[in-house]
Amino acid sequence: MTLALYPGSFDPATYGHLDIARRAAAIFEHVVVAVYDAPPKNVLFSTEERVTLLRESLRDAPNITVDSFTGLLVDYAKHRGAKVIVRGLRAISDFEMEFQMALLNRKMEPALDVVCLMTSVQYTFLSSSILKEIVNLGGNVDGLVPKHIAEAMREKLAGRTDPGEIPRYLTS
Ligand code: ADP
Fold first, then answer.
1. How many CA atoms lie within 13 A of 48 on its CB side?
2. Is the CB of 12 under 6 A from ligand 1?
3. Which of 69, 88, 90, 159 is the 20 to 30 A CA-CA neighbour of 117?
4. 80 is annotated as an active-site residue
5. Residue ranges of the alpha helices (H) in the chain?
C-alpha cells in the first residue's frame, strides 16, 4: 500500500489544504494529514484543536486520517512506513522553500520522495495567516474555510488582543 503523508501546520486548515488532501487521496491508497506539533507560541490553535478541526473537515474521506507529529518529518515518515510526502504549491514563491526542504529530506532519507500538487486556481490566494488576519480585523472568511473552522477562528480571535497590540501569530 502506498501511504502518503501530507504534513503542515494547518493553523487552521483552509479549503486550499483540504483540496490538496482530497486530491492526494485520489492518487494514493492512504493519506495521513500530519499536523506539526509546533511550539504553542507560534500557533493560534493548539495541536489537538488543529487535529480536531481537520478530522471534522475530512470525516467523509475513507482513505484519509489525521495525526500529529513532533520532531523530524523523515523520522515520522519512517515510523508510519510512508513512501511519499505530499506538499501543495500556490506560486513560484512556495517553490523555493519546498525545493530546499525536499532536497534536505531526501539527503536524510533517500527512500522518501516528495510529490507537489499545484493548487486549484480558486485557492491560489488562500493562506492560514491571511485568513487569521481577516478574522482578526472583523472580516468574513465564509467560503474560504469550512463553517466550523470559521466559527472556531472567530471564537479564538474574539477579544484576544488589546487594541493596538500586534497579534502574536502575525509576528511569528
Ligand atoms: P507549513 O507551515 O508546513 O508551510 P501550511 O499549513 O502552511 O504548513 O501548509 C501545508 C502545505 O499546504 C504546504 O505545502 C503549503 O504550500 C500547502 N498549502 C497551503 N495553502 C495552500 C493552498 N491554498 N493551496 C494549495 N496548497 C496550499
1. 0
2. no
3. 69
4. no
5. 15-27, 47-57, 73-80, 92-108, 128-136, 147-157, 168-171
